[in-house]
Amino acid sequence: MMTIDEEQQALLKRAAEERELIFNRYSLGLDPSNQVDPWENPTYEIYHITDKYGFMHDSRLPDIRDAHEVQKTKIELERDKKWVKMIDKWNPHHEKLRKRVFKGIPDRMRWPAWKKLLNVEETMSANTGVYAKMLELSRKYSTEVRQIDSDVNRQFRDNLAFRERYSVKQVSLFNVLNAYSIYNPELGYCQGMACVAGVLLLYMQEEEAFWALNALIVNEKYAMHGLFIEGFPKLTRFLEHHDRIMLKIMPKLHKHFMKHNVDAILYSIKWFFVVFVERIPFSLSLRVWDIFLLEGDRVITAMAITILYLHKNELLRLKDMDSILEYLQVKLHKNFGYNDDFAIEALERVMKKLKEHKLDVPPPAKVTEFPTKPLGQFVEADIEKKIGRRHSEYTDTEKQVINDVILRQEQNAMEVQSTVSYETSECATVTLTVPEDNHSIRSSLAGTSMASHGSSETFSLEDNNIHLKTANALQNTPQREILMGT
């Protein structure tokens, strides 16, 4: 019979062998000798079914581009030239930069523009050799290999760059995530990081994406460390702020959500964790990313409100939690209902309005949202983590997260119940109009005006009329699985 020490040594050996096996597969990449299960490489047709970003679609794309699309391409080529000049004479504080970012960075210019916005080249120059060292250490000591391997194989499987098992981009994603788990051992790895790094790798090389990811995680402007660290302190803070805005700006929708037990945590996880990727069309999420990289995390709360505001009439028609969540999590990704320009214009107005009412920035972050230990200093994991043994009980941090959610819901309910019933409030006109040439309006909204139909929602994107109305609150406690994953 094995002693406890012998058993631990056997488990450590098995974990090391598994880690080496996984790394070897990524080292082989697309080499024919690499073993790939048939299900990992689904067959697909390339011809006519991929968009400009490499994403595949169920239906064929048009054989011929219409005149509008041709004209749009010409305009984008002209914008490319302007961006080349602007990047050559980079001034991050110039008002012209902000205007052009809100117009959308031309796709061909996102590589240099994003690197400038995240200060990637300067960071790489100041940290020569660090990424290679972290990657080397991860091959020997990473405790996150199994989970990262699993997530890499799930990330962007409908995109040509990531679809083939052990493709160049899959290998890069695997390397970046493992190296970062060593570089920032306090954080390690959280599933949402795979999507963020995946987006960066669509526009950057491997080491560039590593330092860009680090900027998003540790820079106070983005501070995603607080989203991914155990306990998700930034998520809790942003959810509270989101509830506060909803209560003040869209009380009728807020009541509707509470009536059907739709807590913000149920629909906003991917909004906050990965900046709307896979929840709205990819082209629109890139536009939001452009602004996010320029303006910082206040864009996330503003875009969340913009989505709900633009679709509030449809959401109010849905009468149960499942249909509301399906609409926000699935349907809007397939068909947002508005073209990208219109959505971004609405976002800009919402950002301005929130700022006027001092709602654009959440309460200050706590120290727990930022790294408290030096980055890049190797810290060997304890034996439990090396073995990969999972705790069966809630950790103290997990218990605190659940308690925080319950407390937020109770406080939210008390605030709602303390105000005047929204049904007795006077109606106000919402002055958000839909342009006549907006061909992307959802067919289910055809013939529906975007003016308020007897609604008490009074958040106008054109004037200062914001009234407080209300709702009664009854919300369920989110399950642990909702809190612990994306």
UniProtKB/TrEMBL annotation:
Sections of the chain in a coiled coil? none
Q: Which domain of life is it from?
A: Eukaryota
What is the annotated signal peptide range for this record?
Answer: none
SMART domains, per the entry: TBC
Q: Where is the Rab-GAP TBC domain?
A: 104-296
Under the heading SUPFAM superfamilies, the entry gives: Ypt/Rab-GAP domain of gyp1p
Q: Supply the PANTHER family for this chain.
A: RAB GTPASE-ACTIVATING PROTEIN 1-LIKE, RAB-GAP TBC DOMAIN-CONTAINING PROTEIN
Q: What is this protein called?
A: USP6 N-terminal-like protein isoform X3
The organism encoding this protein is: Musca domestica (House fly)
